[in-house]
Write the structure tokens for this entry.
Amino acid sequence: MNFILRALASFALCIGLAHAQQQVLLSVDTGANRVMTLDPNTGAVLNASFIIDANSAASYDFQTPRAAIQVNNEIWVTDQSPSINAIYRFNLTGGYVATIGGAAGGLSNVRGIRFIDGVVYAVNAGSTNGAPGAALVRIDPNGTILGSFPTLAAGGTVGASPWDVVSYGGRLLVSDGTSRGLQLYNTDGSYFGSFTSAINNIPAQMFVRSNGNVLLAANGSTPTGSFGLYEIGSTGTVLRSWTGTPGLGVRGVAELGNGRFLISEAGGASAIRGLGTIDPAGALNNTNLSLIQGNVNVGWISPAVLPIPEPTTALLMLGGLLAGAAWTKVSRVRAASRR
């Protein structure tokens, strides 16, 4: 009996390990149709194949994955492709759970996604598939679409091409490709007003710093050199920028634990573009980029807390512990019988 007790005690330790958690950053690699995990302190790639494409009509088939976020005990991934128009749901170990939208309709040209005050806001830009056009689609954590509100404002000159949304000062801050700036909306969907003037490129993902400043990834290729990373103050003024870094535009951004700014670029097959960091104390130009990994076409970046190791690992360890303990017991009995 003692060997069973010892094995169970060891298994309790395994279970403790199984419920251990790891803080990571999620980053979608559109070029390779996968979701990667990154170190939240350095930006280094931890798991390049956290979620890989199933290429299956029965579950999920990544075409243009754009953003991945944690929603309670799930990971949700938007797919912007017009042939997909969906959000895929996975558990915290990367197993497929369900699809929102897709053949069921309701979403089109899905871009950024955020979990704010218990509601998921999906940035929708298309009107096919029964979708509402340029809008923020509200979804509950169980995957039920609750409704939407349009981002169009100011006679259509604002909000026709939304890309990302964050909570800011009790309102919703939306990056908009039509006005080339950031726009504020009340939580009831009504338009509050412009937060910034135009930045001359397509504003993509945003990250709100603890001091209230907003880091903004600017994507696109024209005007030449205006793409890059911008830091915007609480009054909507651009405080500093790192443009042309080093090409094709910045899509995702996050602040790392080491104080650097992590950015993701449209990298494709370029060895000098992809995932890298900006030193906020460094030069305000495109020389201020430390490449982490090139040849990746990275999208949005967001935090998550994942379990380590997987529960199945702990169960396998229990089997090994019990087998080992039983063998030890048998060996002792045999040795005693020979005395």
